[in-house]
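It is worth pausing here to work through a concrete case rather than discussing structure prediction in the abstract. The textbook approach is simple: state the sequence, then state the predicted structure, then interpret. We follow exactly that order.
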Amino acid sequence: MTAINSRGRERLLEAADCLRLLLVEDDPGDAFLFQELLNEAEPDVEITVASTLAEALAGLSPLVQCVIVDLSLPDARGLDALRQVLNAAPHTAVLVLTGLTDTHVGVEAVAAGAQDYLIKQDVDGALLSRAIRYAIERKRADESERQLVEARVVSRENARLERGLLPVPILADPGLGHDARYRPGRDMALLGGDFYDTVQTDDGTVHVVIGDVCGHGADEASLGVRLRMAWRTLVLAGHTGERLLHTLDTVLTHERWSEEIFTTLCMFAIAPDRRGARMWRAGHPRPLLFDGDGVRPVPDEPRGPALGLLPGMDWPAAELELGDDWALMIYTDGLVEGKIGSGDERLDLDGLLRLAGAAHARGDRGGVLIDGLIREAERLNGEPLTDDLAVLLLSRGDER
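Step two, the predicted structure:
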């Protein structure tokens, strides 16, 4: 290899204190010239020389920012050497070295994944430093584009899953408002162990459910989806009340992976005239009732234990009078388990009642009401709520 003296000094990477390169060159003379050129153009560069592909593969590490590969090595030739380097260091920039008569090989190398190629006879210090810098930046740009494409694919898949797994209410009554919010507690998760659903049956009754599988993770999310689907199927088949809950309890005990797994649940059957409802609670937080008199929790009794805890238990119904203008809000405990300030005090039902009363007095309704409550709970908590969270608000008349 012949070399032309460098015509200037260029920083290889402005932000880096030391650039680490791996030079794969079996000719000691050529390797020495490359090191001299690089040291002249950039004295802070750290160069490791490997004379064989095997030695190069053993020397690769995440600290190496660029690999310069001669495609004529004793243990690998041509694009085979390049492919092995690319497979071993998929996130590292790669430059290939070719001769004057092999420029077509350089073009093929770029098509195979290298960032650029250099003709040995034309290399000087400035050209070499620029080529390395551009190769590293081009690799970073390629990685950023790849991550963006992957994020878009994940986003599309998440949207598809969301359409398939989160419920679309079966609700034909135009006089009812239906607003819901759902937030899984895990980062980047689509679903948590909470679930909800709404189904209007042929007799005009509107059935509503919300549930919370204990624990956090993909298994809990999967179980929540199965329980919701089982609930919807049972409602559409004509089941309701205790009969439905006993069947759902049986489904849970057969589907869960541990006897310690339980599920809290609250269920309503709103009468066809919309002036009354029956409620069943299985260890679940008390819903809120909004009407012209303000906000109050539904009665605490009667109620039963969470599903999966005590076989053969009963879940008695509570009768509710709703009137003409009302809203029922059911939620999971992720909404009320956030802290208040720096101590250990939780928001709990009393705190939620205060927030809901203030929002209702301001005239907040529907989705605006739910979003405001979540924001206030997060503000009091000092950070986003970490537990799975689901809220469903069904409203009628002036409370819509």
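Step three, interpretation. The radius of gyration is 33 Å. The longest helix spans residues 125-165.
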